[in-house]
Design a protein that fits this description.
The chain has about 70 residues and is mostly beta strands. The protein has no helices and six strands. It has strands at about 5-10, 15, 20-25, 35-40, 50-55, 60-65. Strands 1-2-3-6-5-4 form a six-stranded antiparallel beta barrel.
Length: about 70
């Protein structure tokens, strides 16, 4: 799949990836601006109810809501 970058990271809760807004279901620690991410579930276009992303720098996974 395609890799994307975190364009904005706010309070470990709100992320802009591929120009779309994603909100953490709990908290996503260590997800920093510029980090490369891969979508394990869901869609980078925001066309989903929820998604799981993998931070390729830290190895952390995060479940997010798609808005």
């Amino acid at each position: 799949g395609n890799n994307y970058f975190i364009e904005t990271s706010h309070n470990d809760e709100l992320f802009i990836i591929n120009g779309e807004k994603f909100e953490a279901k709990t908290y996503c620690f260590g997800m920093k601006e510029g980090d490369p991410v891969k979508f394990l579930e869901g869609c980078a276009l925001g066309v989903c109810v929820s998604a799981e992303i993998l931070n390729l720098r830290s190895g952390n996974k995060c479940r997010v809501w798609c808005e």
